[in-house]
């Protein structure tokens, strides 16, 4: 059976349920959750893939948590940071971006993760425009590294939420 996702509008309101492949083929916006992982030293995990489609009825946070477990084999809390509509790439997506502090060893699923490395913020700043990142990932990293660079009043961006601590 194909993966089902919620087709959403330009305001992230659900319009219906469709197969993810159909959403991509027809360029219909749907939801993706992504997580920026940091370690206790403040380095950021860079890899080929952490994130995936938000299942029908699932929150961005639940999807981010699920994807971390499925792809990296870790169970850690995630903190929602922001979301934005990304029109570039293979399909328009609402990308919900999260942060997680990972202190336990990673057990990446080789079927999901092709490569990984921990980079310092300075190293990541150097490569964010040079390496091949998906458009949503590149935008998310830029905003994460320099939150003041984005226009907070933009209707396509949701400001970071306060930490629930």
Structure description:
The model is unreliable at 151-165 (pLDDT under 50). This protein has 165 residues and is α+β, with helices and mostly antiparallel strands. The chain has helices at 20-25, 60-72, 121-127, 135-145, and strands at residues 4-8, 14-19, 30-38, 44-47, 51-53, 79-86, 93-101, 116-119. The longest helix is centred in the middle third of the chain and has 13 residues, at 60-72. The protein has a four-stranded mixed β-sheet. The radius of gyration is 15 Å and the shape is globular. A hairpin with a 5-residue loop joins strand 1 and strand 2 (14-19).
Keywords, separated by commas or semicolons:
single chain, 165 residues, alpha+beta, Nucleoside Triphosphate Pyrophosphohydrolase, four-stranded mixed beta sheet, two-stranded antiparallel sheet, 4 helices, globular, disordered C terminus
Question: Order of SSEs, N→C?
Answer: EEHEEEHEEEHH
Mean pLDDT: 89
Tell me the distance between the termini.
40 Å
Total beta strands:
8
- CATH architecture tag: Alpha-Beta Complex
Largest sheet: 4 strands, mixed
Give the CA-based shape: globular
Find the structural class using helix and strand composition: alpha+beta
Strand content: 25-35%
CATH superfamily, by name, is Nucleoside Triphosphate Pyrophosphohydrolase
In the sheet with the most strands, the strands line up as 5-3-7-6
CATH topology: Nucleoside Triphosphate Pyrophosphohydrolase
Note the total helix count.
4
The gyration radius over C-alpha positions equals 15 Å
Query: In terms of per-residue confidence, which ranges show pLDDT below 50 for 5 or more consecutive residues?
Result: 151-165
User: Which range best describes the helical content: under 10%, 10-25%, 25-40%, 40-55%, 55-70% or over 70%?
Assistant: 10-25%
The structural domain count equals 1
CATH class: Alpha Beta
């Amino acid at each position: 059976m194909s993966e089902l996702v919620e087709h959403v509008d330009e305001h992230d309101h659900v319009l219906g349920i469709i197969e993810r492949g159909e959403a991509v083929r027809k360029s219909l916006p749907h939801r993706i959750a992504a997580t920026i992982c940091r370690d206790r030293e403040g380095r950021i995990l860079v890899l080929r893939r952490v994130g995936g489609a938000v299942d029908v009825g699932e929150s961005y946070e639940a999807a981010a948590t699920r994807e971390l477990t499925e792809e990296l084999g870790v169970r850690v809390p995630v903190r929602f940071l922001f979301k934005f509509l990304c029109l570039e790439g293979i399909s328009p997506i609402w990308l919900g971006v999260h942060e997680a502090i990972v202190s336990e060893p990673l057990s990446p699923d080789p079927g999901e993760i092709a490569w990984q490395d921990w980079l310092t913020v300075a190293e990541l700043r150097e490569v964010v425009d040079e390496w091949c990142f998906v458009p949503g990932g590149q935008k998310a990293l830029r905003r994460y590294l320099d939150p003041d660079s984005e226009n907070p009043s933009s209707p396509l961006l949701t400001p970071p939420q306060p930490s629930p601590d």
